[in-house]
């Protein structure tokens, strides 16, 4: 398939798939206890991660025939691919595992479509919050809010847009679980009037909806952590750059699909 084949119908089908994965996550989330084990990199993983990833990989094969999928748990288990194709999907079945374990609701299902080194379409679904964000180049971005297990109708999606920073100062959003000195140092150079904290890719969505203006991250992330939120934000009129303002690329197979630092912005003044 080509990137041009991404249309509103396909985005809605992607949202439906992410909600289905989210239902499986909620089955584990709402259980009496959550079994957690450590991966080789010492990051936590649960049964919910693995069950949701299986649903996503199966569903994406039908929605995006012949488009390779690079998924977090498969890459952790089997190793990341040695090279990146021109067009591929990045999947994080449960972004914010620490938030999931803490049961604060701030975890997401992330699926991003990458082409030419850039995210061109994506879906972020927050199962516990009943919120789903979708976006694609040329189609804009939108959000639907429903009951936590409900699949939103296509008519439920409402357009969203990143805002231009207000004159009184920026609203900055940062990680709830991964604060780091570099991020704090960077924020000290900006005219920040308000601060917010959030888990997972919800930070991208806050900027995409105009609820925040900047989200810097200097701590370690992987491409599947950011592709979906990046796609939604870009479709909403925002951007993601390297800290020096350069292009933030995807498909970094030589780096194991690890990201460097980045800054997500709302609309930038001309």
Automatic annotation (TrEMBL):
Localization in the cell: Cell inner membrane
Q: Where does Mg(2+) 1 bind?
A: 72, 92, 94-95, 225
Q: Which cofactor does it need?
A: Mg(2+)
Which Pfam families does the protein's record reference? Answer: Inositol_P (PF00459)
- Matching InterPro entries, A to Z? CysQ, CysQ/Inositol_MonoPase, Inositol_monophosphatase-like, Inositol_monophosphatase_CS
- Catalysed reaction(s)? adenosine 3',5'-bisphosphate + H2O = AMP + phosphate
What is the membrane topology here? Peripheral membrane protein
Q: Where is the signal peptide?
A: none
Top-level taxon in the UniProt lineage: Bacteria
- The answer to keyword Magnesium applying to this record is yes
Where on this chain does Mg(2+) 2 bind? 92, 95, 225
Q: What EC number(s) would the UniProt record show?
A: 3.1.3.7
A GO cellular-component term linked to this record: plasma membrane
According to its UniProt entry, the protein's GO biological process terms are: 3'-phosphoadenosine 5'-phosphosulfate metabolic process; phosphatidylinositol phosphate biosynthetic process; sulfate assimilation
Q: Which PANTHER family match?
A: 3'(2'),5'-BISPHOSPHATE NUCLEOTIDASE 1 (PTHR43028)
**What family does the database annotate?**
Belongs to the inositol monophosphatase superfamily. CysQ family.
Name assigned to this protein: 3'(2'),5'-bisphosphate nucleotidase CysQ
Which organism was this protein described from?
A: Hansschlegelia beijingensis
Upper lineage is: Bacteria, Pseudomonadati, Pseudomonadota, Alphaproteobacteria, Hyphomicrobiales
